[in-house]
Amino acid sequence: MIVGSSRFDRLNLWLVGGLVVIPPLAVFFGSGGEGPSFVLYREPKLVAMAVLGWLFLSTFFVSKTPSIDRGDFLAVLRCPEILILGAFVGYMALTGVWGRVYENFLYEINQWSLLFVLLVTLLVWDRSLSSLSARVEDFLLASLAIVSGISIIQLVIPIPFLSPVWPSSGILHTSTMGYKNPFALAILGQLFLLTGRCLGSRRTTFLRIACGVCAVGELVLLLSLGSRSSVSGLLVATVVLVVLWSVALLRTGSYRRFLLAVLVGLAVVSGIVTVGGWFQQSRVNSMMEIAASPGTYLGTDRGIYLLNTLEMVQEHPLGVGAGDWQTFYPIFRRHSPGVAFSLETQVRRAHSDPVQILGELGWPGLILWALFLGTVGTKLLRSFFADPNTTSAFHIAQMTALVVAGLTDYLLETPYNKFQFVLVLFLVMAPLSREDSCRGGSPHLGIPKLMGLVVLLAAVSNVTYSISLGMKIQVSGQIRAFAQQRDIGVLIANRRRFINELDRRFSNLPGHIKTFYKDHLVLGDQELRMGNLERARHNIEIALELHPYNPNAYLLQAEAATSPAQAERCRIVAREILEGSVSDR
């Protein structure tokens, strides 16, 4: 058990609260002449999670190491799901040996190492502070209530530095989450937990009403975003919840309540489809078409990503390495090469957790991830059927919603959604972890001290990395804002001052923090148009070093070539890439 001072418990709880509440609100924007020149959503959340996460872990182990029970640590570390998740993260770290872009490997492994240590630490702490999981759930629900409230309020009071999540389809909600998919996944990631609060036996009437109002508001907001993946997860999880509830009622002989539960479930499912159709009829129709004829899925963008990834894994069975392989690694485009593909950036999101894991970590990574989810799901179902209760049913439904949505969306790609998924894992695993009988070890033994030392060293390294990444974020945003200017006179007038400022800023960054290759490509293009061939070649070479499979970079290099022969070679490579005949180089 943890016998430390309650003062430290309160401090650590406040730090956990900040860690859970602040990241979804984190955005970064730069000011232009008449307003914000750019807004960044994803990276600020990553920096906030890293700094606050390692701050909490460092404070926890400094204040609690002398009093942590060795048995609690062993009980958590021996859990099959923790062992499998540790193997998954360990294999991810191993892929850094053959991964080509070390910057992207660091970007990904830093997130997973933090989240794994955070999950273990919270489970250890929860074994003695039984109210911890309830507090974490409070923080999670409050954070998304704030984010959703901002999105609704801005319809009346516009927020100038936030962009609409999908203006081309008429979805004018702005959000601190940025695009519609991460926003919808974030709402879905706690909606069943919030609904469970409405039915909790320990809640006052006022809290039940408040949770119910929030749940209805967030449900309507989720449906209005038009995310088919999130709606699919919502529907499947609702059906699972009704089935579990029905089983529990049948086992207690409550046949009338069983019939009522089935009718309510059918009404809820019908309501979700109907309300979703009001907002996005075409997207609901496409979901129905795929459900009626599953083979048509392979003709969608997600299906094409799957087919090309299966081609890719034939040549890279162990994966191409952790990181954003869709941006920086060879893109296999043998199936429908022109669908949803950007020649400028070569970004092609997997739009699927299993597909992304298969591409980055190969078959070993996918098998480990499937084993992990299967182990957690099996434990949850066993616990529910041993003691059917409302809390367990809603936990299973919440996990089902996220896993189903992740089959056709990038849940694990975005830093905040990945973080939220781990928080949900903690909430559903905590009651199961407390049932483990491995306790009673003596405090002041080596495992907690060793863990604390590792955490402190990792905190120093990762916070330094995150601060450096934050500096890069600011510079990257300025590059984008500069490149978006349409007035060539303004570009030329500010070129020298801007480039000097970039040189000064980048000279202060650590060597492993580089700008995005597309930023160098933009600068190379601008320099080429302005006649500065030396600087153009320099930026284009950096872009090719970071991403050797971008046809635009080779075409620009052809324009800046010093000889006709070199220019022709560059054009040939660009043509091969465009035709999809280059798979590795």
Overall description:
This protein has two domains: 6-454, no CATH class; 475-578, Serine Threonine Protein Phosphatase 5, Tetratricopeptide repeat (Alpha Horseshoe), CATH 1.25.40. A hairpin with a 4-residue loop joins strand 3 and strand 4 (171-174). The protein has a two-stranded antiparallel ribbon with strand order 1-2. The protein has a two-stranded antiparallel sheet with strand order 3-4. 70% of the residues lie in helices and 3% in strands. With 585 residues, it is mostly helical.
Number of DSSP-assigned strands = 4
User: Helicity, in percent?
Assistant: 55-70%
Mean pLDDT level: 75
Strand order of the largest sheet: 1-2
In whole angstroms, how far apart are the ends? 56 Å
Q: Give the helices and strands as they follow along the chain.
A: HEEHHHHHEEHHHHHHHHHHHHHHHH
Bulk shape: globular
What number of structural domains do the residues give? 2
The profile of the biggest β sheet is:
2 strands, antiparallel
Counting copies of identical and different chains, the oligomeric state is: single chain
> How much β-strand is present in the residues?
under 5%
Q: What structural category arises from helix and sheet content?
A: mainly alpha
Roughly how many Å is the radius of gyration? Answer: 25 Å
Number of helices: 22
Stretches where pLDDT falls below 50 for ≥5 residues?
439-444, 506-518, 581-585
